[in-house]
Amino acid sequence: MSTIVIDNPDLIRSPEALTCEWLDTNATGGYSSSSILLCHTRKYHGLLVTNLTDPPGRYVLLSKVDDSIATGEQEFFLSAHQYPECFFPGGQSLLTGFDGDTNPKFTYRLGDQSLEKEVLMILGMDGLLLKYRLARCGEPCVLRMKPLLAYRGIHSLAAENTYLREGIEEIHDGYRVSPYEGMPSLHIQVSVPSRLLSGGGWYRRFEYAEEKARGYDYQEDLFCPGVIEIPFDRTGEIYVCFATEPCSDKLKKVWTEQRRKRSASKGQNDLFANTFKRDRDLVRVLVKAADQFLIRTPAGRFAVVAGYHWFYEWGRDTLISLPGLTFCRGCFQTGQEILKIFGDYEKYGLFPNFFAEDEKENAYNTVDASLWYFWAVQQYLKYGGDHQWVRQYLWPVMKRILKQFMAGTLYDIHMDDRGLLHAGSEGTRLTWMDAAVDGLPVTPRWGYMVEINALWYNAICFSHELAMKYDDQEFALLELISLIRRSFRDTFRVSQGGYLGDVFRQGVLDTAVRPNQIFAVSLPYSPLDPSDWPGVVEKVRRLLLTSCGLRTLSPEDPDYRGRYEGVMTARDGAYHQGTVWPWLWGHFGEAYLKVHKDSARARTFLRKQVRGFLKSHLTRAGLGCISEVFDGDSPQRPGGCIAQAWSTAELIRLLTLLNDLPSPGVAYSKGSDNEGETLP
Which pairing describes strands 503-505 and 448-449: parallel, antiparallel, or unpaired? Predict the structure, then answer.
């Protein structure tokens, strides 16, 4: 499975095709996305979704294109839109195949002719290229195109209004529209001479099935500025560009250059994937997906998009994702820059939980992002990073975090006299299990959390390691290490069950079986004795492991919710109450290998599990992508974001651990970058 190809007519013409979604990104936070039928099912779908500076945020500018091919007396409609109780005009009946290798490509049968339509986001620019190619161009043919504009934020819906400016301006190689004051113009450039026909106006009541199922508003009106008619010349090719600024070059040249950049990136990715003899094709798909999350923001800094379509940049997600997205693959420069940039955002020992799109109101309500920072640095060094660079740029940040956590900081985060880390108070949501209904946490986690203290112990031990290497005796912390170790075991061990409780609060240990305990085994420094590891791992394997990752709560628990579905309150109620998360594969696999002493049998078991998951899932939901969550109950249906950064990253990291080479990322390209072409 080196590419995602769908050529099954039964699938393409079935309702299931609407659940198969594609994604193409531009390395600046913008994207193009829809179902393989090019029928939108989400308000987040759009052909040109931009990440703007002014106004700040992500906006659906060009929602879709209503297009057709006219030849002789026949007109073939390529579009498919869902309206109340019907699909129109039925272009899905002409679709014969989808190919998502380098960029999304759709193949249509038009009588005795074949048409290919391709979508390509322009890297580093808020622009989209469309390419139409007729297999043979005999009798005269024209492309008729109706651009359908939304011009709204990704979380909103457009409605017919009197504020929109309906004019369309002809320019030397196309057209320009400026629908709203304060929003960028949309330039429509065409590779061959075209003409503007009448037929503009509002098109009403497009429906988005996924929004309806999720309990949100689901109908939208879109505006067409006019019908553009474009004749095919003897080459049988037409290129159209939609962008917030004009393309200066010929469109075919721009297309060729963009394809070259992607081919170069693909070639570099293949070098990495080829080190995986058994899983080469799967890794090839995963690293292509990984590149989608690495961006330069409009402010010019490197960042990680947590998930498409609706998440932006989250501190915790970034630091968990960074090793799999970068260091395992030998992409040190981008990873280094992100770690260094995080140091600039540290306040009171904390990193932002999420970064505001306007870069102004970042939220610092998380305890674990700072601790995951230590782990990310560990992984950087593990895969060949530079100790001198760490000492110069990261070690001062790490020491500030330690001082703040020991002394106490926001949200009652402090180290107690037992060496353990306390965080939060009633009503706070400082860990990754942060869903709320009516303002109240669904999974109340404040006090002493098991993974927070496992991360704290790991951070202290790693700091001791660096202090010894850097001759920084103030942070040797040797006595603290032994204190935390004793306190952790005394606090979190469930003596009768052989596993770890989840939260200790007000003298009571919550003994619910959750995946958070796995980090006490998987992290480089474990606060447990090795003799305690098997009980933890076996408990997690028996009650939480599924074919798609780990459940967030045991199905034996009365609070377990097996389905992630319905309106927002129902989904949030299940989000961490049984729902499966693929990102946990990485740490479960690492813990499992530790317990089984990295045996061939353990590797075989994990490989089989991961391969089975990837082979079944990569052709579902987000094609070539890893979803955010799955149902806890079988069959585990995908849900949430169609492409999640840490899901992708941790599977890459796990496959790296399972690879026959000791450190494929290092062997592949130590100290180099393979993302230079895709991160302008």
Answer: antiparallel
**Residues 380, 500: one domain?**
yes
Mutual angle of helices 395-407 and 368-382, in 10-degree steps? 150
Q: Cβ–Cβ contacts within 10 Å for residue 197, how many? A: 12
Cβ atoms of residues 303 and 35 within 8 Å: no
Quick one: 157 and 233 in the same domain?
yes
Q: What is the DSSP code string of 652-663?
A: HHHHHHHSSSS-
Number of domains in the chain: 2
Confidence of residue 662 (pLDDT cuts 50, 70, 90): very low
Residue-wise pLDDT tens digits, 590-617? 999 999 999 999 999 999 999 999 999 9
**From CA 609, how far away is CA 647, in angstroms rounded?**
15
- How far is 96 from 621, CA to CA, in rounded Å? 19
* pLDDT per residue as tens digits for the range 212-223: 999 999 999 999
The stretches of 193-233 forming alpha helices (DSSP H) are: 209-213
Backbone angles phi, psi at 255, to 5 degrees: -60, -50
What percentage of the chain reaches a pLDDT higher than 90?
A: 87
Regarding whether 205 and 122 lie in a shared domain, the answer is yes
The pLDDT of residue 112: 87
What are the tokens at 358? 């306007």
Domain boundary among 222, 248, 274: 248
To which H or E segment does residue 92 belong?
none
Strands 294-296 and 302-304: antiparallel
The answer to whether position 255 is within a domain reads no
Q: Are residues 235 and 294 in the same domain?
A: no
- Residue partners of 325: CB distance under 8 A and separation at least 6: 290, 293, 294, 304, 331, 335, 645, 648, 649, 652
Cβ–Cβ under 8 Å, residues 221 and 202: yes
Beta strands in 154-194 (DSSP E): 169-171, 174-177, 186-190
**Range(s) of the domain holding residue 580:** 262-669
One DSSP character per residue, 607-649 reads: HHHHHHHHHHHTTSSBTTS--SEE-SSSS--EES-SEEHHHHH
Domain boundary among 193, 223, 248: 248
pLDDT digits (tens, 9 = 90+) for 451-466: 999 999 999 999 999 9
Q: Which token pair is 676?
A: 């230079």
Question: What is the rounded average pLDDT for all residues in the chain?
Answer: 94
Question: What is the C-alpha separation between 330 and 671, in angstroms, rounded?
Answer: 6
| Sequential DSSP letters for 549-617 | EEESS-TTSTT------SSHHHHHHHTTTT-EEGGGHHHHHHHHHHHTTT-HHHHHHHHHHHHHHHHHH
